[in-house]
Amino acid sequence: MQHSENAQGVEDVVWAPPRRFGPRSAPARRAILEAARARFAEDGYEKTTIRAVAADAGVDPAMVMRYYGSKADLFDATVRVASDLEDLTKVPREEIGRRFARAMLGRWERGENKPEAAALRAAPTHPEAARSVQRSFNEHVLPALRRAFPDDPDIETRAGLVLTQGIGTALLRYVLEIEPVASMDYETLIEAVGASIQRHLTAPLGSAA
Amino acid sequence: MQHSENAQGVEDVVWAPPRRFGPRSAPARRAILEAARARFAEDGYEKTTIRAVAADAGVDPAMVMRYYGSKADLFDATVRVASDLEDLTKVPREEIGRRFARAMLGRWERGENKPEAAALRAAPTHPEAARSVQRSFNEHVLPALRRAFPDDPDIETRAGLVLTQGIGTALLRYVLEIEPVASMDYETLIEAVGASIQRHLTAPLGSAA
DNA sequence: TTCGAAAGTCAACAAGCGTTGATATCGTGG
DNA sequence: CCACGATATCAACGCTTGTTGACTTTCGAA
């Protein structure tokens, strides 16, 4: 079950501000970014402080500003991530819903989702984070589903519906930890969410479409 | 931190000022609560300031503290609301999903949802808001569905799944305004979300439940 | 009319925030 | 060796926040 090419834990696509900084500071920059991901994912945008990120990374707060410009820019760097979706074109059509649910929720279940968690946690109060969710839909979810259903004229509407089910599940289970969703058996959850997504992808759309 | 008068004070009340305040201040208290609802719903917990609420209500910031104790207590008063769900016992079983979707999303669509919006907007960063979502599930969603499906042993799991679909839709359409969900035709949305909820309520549950 | 409590005003505190600039230290090329 | 730019440290700035206490005004009851 491959989820991404670079299984390398922390990919070093450190969004580099030009070349004003030599390679000697790479460890510090990486430590800052890692600490920022954890803090933003856990506390959201407002409650995350530059000072706390710096302390977690073991650097001076001024270094954070030096390398990332501002708190807003640091957040942008935090949520900027590749996170490709599995190729669904070779999956049998009846299985796509389940596979999509697994691809989306698996990252959360395994805890390899700091950027997504930061974006989702911060989205309701930080507009830039909401735009990041929109971008993730435009650049990953929608294209992947379009490739799987190339001749469906309503695929955009369907993809939006898929996202409501997927993000709703992630929010309740992993961010808000609402019971019984948070403690629900994972396979049962995948089964139900996958079937719901499958329905959004294939069932007839009602009303004026 | 604490705002209690320690020795004599029996207990500090959470939401409604007991009768320590005369009826002459009722308009001000109501204006404060209304302004707080709007601000919390729009900006979330952290970005909402006592000063802004006071300005919107046309009162002095100190009045907000006087009548509601603290910012956290003001938020509690904001999200404490009845919002009963329609009685679903007389609805045909095949229609319950659609009716539930309408009951849940209709309030949002009509904008009569300030307390829910405040709770959902603030939930990812303010734990008390997340607990308010949990309470709403425990006290309204789950009982309503239990009455509609009294003999289903998995109704709690099913109700949780229903909530993932319902809250996911509300979040994307009304809070984050993610396209194409935000601009989707309302009846089309109800049809799809209602059918998904219906599926969660009636389809067999997979795996070990 | 008088008086006391309720209602409202005002200024300030202490703490925390993002951010900045001056300064010290390191590491390497000449 | 020295020098110079990159790297790191430090202290502070200006601002906003929740919250508080002293003060004045309002108003109905005695």
Report what the structure shows.
Chains A, B: Residues 26-86 form the HTH tetR-type domain. Chains A, B: It holds the Pfam family TetR_N. Chains A, B: Residues 49-68 bind DNA. The structure is a homodimer of 209-residue chains. Chain A is mostly helical and 209 residues long. Chain A has 2 domains: 23-79, Homeodomain-like (Arc Repressor Mutant, subunit A, Orthogonal Bundle); 93-202, Tetracycline Repressor, domain 2, CATH 1.10.357. Chain A has 9 helices and no strands. Chain A has helices spanning 26-47, 50-57, 61-68, 71-79, 96-110, 114-122, 127-148, 155-175, 186-202. The model of chain A is unreliable at 1-17 (pLDDT under 50). Chain A binds a DNA duplex (30 and 30 nucleotides) through residues 20-22, 24-25, 28, 49-51, 59-63, 65-66, 70-71.
Q: SSE layout and pairings?
A:
The structure is a homodimer.
Chain A: H1 26-47, H2 50-57, H3 61-68, H4 71-79, H5 96-110, H6 114-122, H7 127-148, H8 155-175, H9 186-202
Helix pairs in contact in A: 1-2, 1-4, 1-6, 2-3, 5-8, 5-9, 6-7, 7-8, 8-9
Chain A binds a DNA duplex (30 and 30 nucleotides) through helix 3.
Keywords (chains A, B): DNA-binding
Pfam family, one (chains A, B): TetR_C_16
GO molecular function (chains A, B): DNA-binding transcription factor activity; transcription cis-regulatory region binding
